[in-house]
Design brief:
Strand content: 5-15%
Number of domains: 3
Order of helices and strands: EEHHHHHEHEHEHEEHEHEEHHEHEHHH
Length: about 475
């Protein structure tokens, strides 16, 4: 399949645009498997140690010295597995080889612990029978676990969920070499989505780079792309602008390592391509970070809906009594990866007047706002129905506030890096809101400050930061002079 680059030149090559069964906003399962394999290995060592002690002594109360040996063994086992690359998807797909490596490491760890206990003159305190039983239990569990993980990987691979979908942006032989390597690689591990070539024989090379970049971004908003590799013969000043523009989409960005515009860590794709790559920018909230945030969203939003149901019913009744029309107002806004979502709010304006909100923000003393609507806006209670958006996965409790589509289009042309706020799901509350940047943005500088806070949140996300924002929202976020 091909996509035009808008210049009347040969089309950009797009090899696949089909939507895979994994939704675009889901994390890469490869990273989830990495974490899952670590959890399984830790449990193998810990549970087998407890089971061996119970088999030897018939009691489950573990002495401190035994407990410390189990903890040291579990941490050492996991770290040694990481050093030899046993947690990569490629290694997990080869259970026999991984089992052999794991058994070898497990043997060395047990022998090392036995030697440590002996030289520490603590051999009389630790049972040699327990050591032997622990080793056997652990070895059996390690072999069995490989079969379980292998079966899980096979199920995911059959559904195409483990493929890393890659796009290449660049010019010259480097691009062609990368594309050839990816096409020749294991198709069950990675898939080349498309190549976006930049022509060199043009009057403005920077314009060429940006147009090819826009083609890539448009494709990333239609289908899932996990990784972008930027390939060029040598570093150029326009490459930095390309990376900034690609920050508008939730992907991992890599460079060929000979580019000296950036420094970074070695890329995990180097093993696939066979070429030296550097990881430059990572997709936010991938892997277990995504799982943790989504879990908190579901739990807290579900509890809030149950507890606040009477309040929301009362608000809906007051809206209906106060002015004719529905209690809820639905507005199209941009969500994750700049995709349109329908945000639900309590109606705060007279029917018909709310349509103007797509173009003109509410202002102080706005005649379009109803009496009860003014109170709801002042207290932010009009946002409560968005808990439904959180439950359906379109929004999060914490994140950049979703802007009206018209406002998005306007500010995207006025503020650099504006689109980067769509790399995560929008939120009911956010870092900008608890820092006072909410309500009407009557100046460009106010909107620019709001975007700076949104980008800071995305770049510095943690579960603790989310909990802090939720706490600050409860303390000072509901009532604010800018909310009207």
């Amino acid at each position: 399949m091909f996509a035009r680059n808008g210049l009347g030149e040969p089309p950009v090559e797009v090899e696949s645009t089909d939507l895979h069964s994994r939704p675009v906003d889901w994390p890469n399962p490869g990273k989830l498997l990495h974490g899952l394999a670590i959890v399984i290995d830790i449990n193998i060592i810990v549970v087998s140690g407890f089971a061996a002690y119970f088999a030897r002594h018939g009691i489950s109360a573990l002495p401190l010295d035994y407990f410390l040996l189990i903890v040291v063994a579990a941490l050492t086992h996991v770290q040694s597995q990481r050093l030899v690359g046993s947690y990569s998807v490629e290694a997990l797909r080869r259970p026999m080889a991984r089992a052999g490596r794991a058994l070898g490491l497990w043997s060395l760890i047990v022998l090392g612990l036995i030697a440590t206990v002996y030289f520490a003159r603590a051999a009389a305190d630790v049972s040699r029978v327990w050591f032997g039983t622990w080793f056997v239990y652990g070895a059996v569990a390690i072999v069995m676990a490989q079969g379980v993980v292998s079966r899980l990987i096979s199920m995911l691979a059959l559904r195409g969920l483990l493929k890393t979908r890659i796009a290449i942006l660049g010019q010259g032989r480097v691009l062609g070499k990368l594309a050839d390597r990816l096409r020749a690689s294991n198709i069950s591990i990675c898939e080349l989505v498309g190549t976006f070539s930049v022509r060199r024989n043009t009057k403005s090379l920077e314009v060429e780079w940006m147009r090819a970049t826009e083609d890539l971004i448009n494709l990333a908003r239609q289908t899932r792309i996990d990784e972008v590799i930027i390939a060029a013969r040598r570093s150029r000043p326009d490459v930095s602008a390309v990376v900034d523009r690609l920050s508008a989409i939730p992907v991992n960005i890599h460079f060929c390592s000979h580019l000296d515009v950036f420094t970074g860590s070695p890329s995990h794709l180097a093993a696939v391509t066979g070429l030296p790559l550097l990881g430059v920018r990572s997709r936010p909230l991938d892997g277990w970070d995504w799982v943790g945030k989504r879990t908190i969203d579901l739990i807290l939003a579900g509890v809030a809906i149950v507890l606040l149901a009477p309040v929301m019913l009362l608000i809906a009744l007051l809206i209906r009594v106060g002015s004719p029309g529905p209690a809820l107002f639905r507005q199209h806004r941009y969500g994750f990866n700049n995709r349109e979502i329908v945000v639900v709010k309590f109606r705060t304006m007279y029917v018909g007047a709310a349509v103007e909100l797509e173009v003109r923000q509410a202002t102080t003393g706005d005649p379009r706002v109803t009496g009860i609507g003014r109170l709801l806006r002042r207290t932010s209670l009009d946002e409560l129905p968005q808990l439904i958006n959180v439950m359906t996965g379109e929004m999060s409790l914490v994140g950049p506030r979703p802007h009206a589509i018209t406002h998005n289009k306007i500010y995207a042309t006025l503020i650099d890096n504006y689109g980067a706020r769509c790399r995560v799901k929008p939120g009911i509350t956010g870092w900008a809101q608890v820092n006072g940047f909410r309500g009407e943005t009557e100046s460009l500088d106010k909107m620019r400050r709001r975007i700076e806070h949104d980008i800071f949140y995305i770049d510095n996300w943690s579960l603790l930061l989310d909990l802090k924002i939720l706490l600050l929202t409860l303390i000072r976020g509901f009532v604010h002079p800018n909310a009207y």
